[in-house]
Amino acid sequence: MEKHYKLTTMIMAGGRGERLFPLTRDKAKPAVTFGGIYKIIDFTLSNCINSGIRQIYVLTQYGSFSLDHHLRMAWEVVNPEMGEYIYSIPPQQITVNRWYRGTADSIFQNINILQQERPDYVLILSGDHVYKMNYLDMLEYHLAKNADMTVSCLEFPRRQSSGFGILHVDSDFRIINFLEKPKDPPAIPGHPDLSLVNMGIYIFKTEVLVQEVIRDARLTESDHDFGKNIIPSMVDRSLRVFAYSFRDENRK
Fold it and tell me: What's this model's pTM, rounded to 2 decimal places?
């Protein structure tokens, strides 16, 4: 399968992590220590390497020094001569003179990378999540569905899901609505006690991603967020947006 596609990965790693203060007083949330010598971002990076993904951009912003240092000291496992890399990318301010306004805006500000790389697909991840996942399984699903966008979701008890972003899907797991912290979360078809919680993990066809973030950047009322803005907009315009039901690799 690797011979038939080109995948570029972008990891969102610039959040302030205010709910972890004072741990995030002088560093970004992905750089917070976890388990002694490790950092939170190590979970996402380990998932990438174990999935065979070695073309990775880490989009940094707030308190990035400790994260940059950790990437340089702990993640020199890729081979540039083989086209492998883990690059730390702060806001370039090439197209606009500002920091990132949201997850979609961070991609918009780095469109030049996609223009240079010209991948077939883009995997968008968060650098502050703790889980184990094979991203190529999600990519296989994305290809099988011929999706424009695929959203990884966690099956969660419906009565406890009102504090999350919820994806409403049909029987084919095509997304028909996105609801931010709904009082009555919609159930998964055939599973009345479960809802689908957005994990903030996305796969796009590259040309679709570029079109959507450019379109979103022109909307002054937008929060420039994939969950709040990009997903609902794509669903409203009948693009092929599907939910991928996450299964923990540790079978938990």
Answer: 0.91
What are the C-alpha distances in Å from 248 to residues 84, 97, 120, 162, 174? 26, 40, 26, 22, 21
In degrees and rounded to multiples of 5, residue 204 shows phi and psi of -125, 150
DSSP codes joined into one string, 97-152: SS---SHHHHHHTTHHHHHHH--SEEEEEETT------HHHHHHHHHHTT-SEEEE
What distance in Å separates the CA atoms of residue 14 and residue 189, rounded to the nearest whole number?
Answer: 36
Residues 6+ apart with CB under 8 A from 34: 40, 42, 43, 130
Q: Which two three-digit tokens encode residue 68?
A: 């940059």
Q: Which residue type occupies 9?
A: T
C-alpha 107/C-alpha 9 separation (Å) is 11
75: tokens are 């993640």
Radius of gyration of the chain (CA): 18
For residue 24, is pLDDT > 70? no
Burial class (CB in 10 A: 0-12, 13-18, 19+), 232: middle
Average pLDDT of the residues of the chain: 88
Q: What is the pLDDT of residue 173?
A: 97
**Under 8 Å between Cβ of 151 and 243:** yes
**For the purposes of burial, counting CB atoms within 10 Å of the CB of 116, is it exposed (0-12), middle (13-18) or buried (19 or more)?**
exposed
Instruction: Give the residue from 51, 85, 82, 81 showing the smallest Cα distance to 71.
Output: 85
- pLDDT of 3: 47
The encoded tokens of residue 160 equal 């406890």
